[in-house]
Design goal:
The protein is of the alpha+beta class. It has one domain. Helices cover about 20% and strands about 50% of the residues. It has 2 helices and 5 strands. A 5-stranded antiparallel β-sheet has the order 1-4-5-2-3. The chain is elongated and about 70 Å long. The protein starts with a helix and ends with a strand.
Length: about 110
């Protein structure tokens, strides 16, 4: 009996946990910018997540692209926009808790 539990319990845990990654979008910038009107600060990454109990009951708000962009901008002091922007979403499901996150990657820029 114990030997079967040692096999079945980990198998059940693997079946109820998972993750997934979904490609989002690509954009030249987060706001209209005239060529040559900005200077690049550096590459940044931002994310925003929402957590769920049992995969359906939200424990927090989040998973919004606008908040992920805002998070990325806070990582580059003086930045007002992002250029060369891409985003994606991933989900992780564990036995009791799940989370879905939106990630934004780009180059932070500031006015000249």
């Amino acid at each position: 009996m114990r030997k079967s539990l040692l096999f079945v319990l980990p198998a059940i845990c693997l079946l109820v946990s998972s993750c997934g990654h979904i490609t989002g979008g690509v954009a030249p910038s987060t706001e209209p910018l005239a060529p040559g009107s900005y200077r690049e600060i550096g590459q940044v990454k931002g994310q925003d997540c929402v957590y769920y109990l049992l995969g359906v009951i939200p424990l927090s708000d989040g998973n919004e692209t606008k908040d992920a962009v805002a998070d990325a901008l806070t990582k580059a002091p003086g930045a007002t926009a992002l250029v060369k922007v891409s985003s994606d979403t991933y989900t992780q499901h564990f036995i009791l808790i799940a989370r879905a996150c939106t990630q934004v990657y780009g180059v932070a820029v500031a006015p000249k």
